[in-house]
Specification:
Blueprint: H1 2-41, E1 50-56, E2 62-68, E3 73-78, H2 91-99, E4 103-107, H3 147-161, E5 165-171, H4 173-181, E6 189-193, H5 208-213, E7 218-223, H6 228-239, E8 245-250, H7 258-262, H8 265-277
Parallel strand pairs: 3-4, 3-5, 5-6, 6-7, 7-8
Antiparallel strand pairs: 1-2, 2-4
């Protein structure tokens, strides 16, 4: 009788342990789900998902960047030429994209913002000191090598977020860099604000051939008051082989990211485009 009671007691203890283990597992699942939900609706500080990082290009430039940690959809935002505050112009857009789950990188192109030194050096260099090449005579100019910044940003997203889709958004020279980069790596969509310039090159960075070869969703944005860029954008749109292409035109909104200041709804249009095609 005592042996039966002892067995019954042991079995009861085992059942209690299993019940407690099950309850603890359910609590852990509940806490994890709660954290995810609160993060998604904004109760977890979004700044915890944002980090300033330094990337080093293959030719030695130290590139200041900001990483917005998100899901497997990656976006890189590229600023205009002569943008003294560099990547900061994209801060609001990057935050809004991140709130929708996107993993985002903003970068200071070499010679802009905080990206003015090479690795191991202290002397700063401005983009104004770079030599311009308006043709294809040389592929070794600092402007054409700005594609290295984009490569490092994409590599970072692939390593940190295991991105499965990629969108490139560029303004002014950033548009040419984004399109030029598709010669080296595929992108799932392009958003080009005020692309091109003299003879379809911007400081020697090509775009026409890249647009003509790009068959995925592409969005062009331009304002009539930019003159040559407006004419070139219409040409890019006509020459694009993509079945999913669109052009947003304004009358007097300026160039590049300045259009978002003049036409505030543009920012949401860009976010909606990326949300649909990534």
């Amino acid at each position: 009788m005592s042996e039966q009671k002892e067995k019954s007691f042991v079995e009861s203890m085992k059942e209690d342990r299993l019940k407690i283990t099950g309850i603890l597992i359910l609590i852990l699942i509940f806490v994890a789900a709660l954290v995810f939900i609160l993060s998604d609706i904004g109760f977890v500080d979004p700044d915890d998902r944002i980090e300033n990082v330094t990337l080093v290009t293959e030719d030695g430039w130290e590139i200041s960047a900001t990483h917005f940690d998100g899901d497997e959809r990656g976006v890189v935002l590229i600023h205009m030429l002569n943008q003294d505050d560099g990547r900061l112009v994209w801060n609001d857009t990057a935050r809004k994209l991140n709130e929708k789950g996107f993993s985002v990188m903003t970068i200071d192109l070499r010679g802009h913002g905080e990206s003015k030194t090479r690795e191991g050096e202290t002397e700063e260099t401005s983009w104004r000191e770079f030599e311009s090449d308006y043709g294809q005579e040389s592929w070794d100019t600092e402007f054409k090598k700005m594609r290295f910044e984009l490569k490092e940003a994409v590599d970072y997203l692939e390593e940190e977020n295991q991105i499965e889709t990629l969108g490139l958004v560029g303004a002014d020279i950033g548009s040419n860099i984004a399109a030029f980069y598709t010669d080296y790596r595929d992108a799932d969509t392009l958003v080009l604000l005020s692309p091109g310039t003299i003879n379809t090159y911007h400081r020697g960075i090509p775009i026409m051939g890249q647009v003509q070869n790009y068959e995925k969703p592409i969005l062009f944005v331009v304002s009539e008051d930019t003159g040559h860029q407006y004419s070139m954008t219409e040409l890019f749109y006509m020459d694009s082989p993509s079945d999913t292409k669109e052009v947003i035109e304004f009358e007097d909104a300026g160039r590049g990211t300045r259009m978002m200041e003049a036409e505030p709804e543009l920012e949401q249009d860009i976010i909606d485009w990326l949300d649909e095609y990534l």
